[in-house]
Amino acid sequence: MKLTREDRRWLRLKPGAMLGAPADPLPPQDKYNAGQKLFALLVLAATAIIVLTGSVMSFHLGPPGLVASAMLLHKLAAALVLVGLSVHVTMAAVLSEERPALKSMITGRIDRTFAQGRNAKWVARRARPASKEK
């Protein structure tokens, strides 16, 4: 889930591409595009926050002010995940060019042509014959 230079470029160009603005072509992406990587990192961080703040709230660890702060952070982290999930699913459902991605979220399978257009680096890597390990 490490963001590469190509990922950062993709993040700069993608909003314009979604709005139909003429721009440079999007850089080829690996199995996960930069937006998916950012969402995964958000979920990872939010999960850690939810677990920590949930522990503080459940076991009343600390003074009342700390517990109250934990409640706020807990709710904010959960809200961020829900907003991110909503955006993730809505983009796949609303944008017709992304509809195969919605199906892949459910089935775990993706059409090769769709993947070639969105995840060219991943498709190319999977197409290479496996090297023999020593």
Describe this structure in words.
The protein has 134 residues and is mainly alpha-helical. The chain contains six helices and no strands. It is elongated and about 55 Å long. The mean pLDDT is 90.
Descriptors for this entry?
134 residues, mainly alpha, 6 helices
Number of strands: 0
Report the sheet with the most strands, covering strand number, pairing sense and barrel closure.
Answer: none
Overall average residue pLDDT? 90
Between the first and last Cα atoms, what is the distance in angstroms? 27 Å
Query: What spatial form do the alpha-carbon principal axes imply?
Result: elongated
Radius of gyration: 19 Å
Helical content class:
over 70%
The poorly predicted ranges are none
Strand content is under 5%
Broad structural category = mainly alpha
**N to C succession of SSEs:** HHHHHH
Total of helices: 6
Please render the helix and strand layout as text.
Layout: H1 5-18, H2 34-59, H3 64-94, H4 99-107, H5 112-118, H6 120-127
Helix pairs in contact: 2-3, 3-4, 5-6
Short description:
The chain is an all-alpha fold.
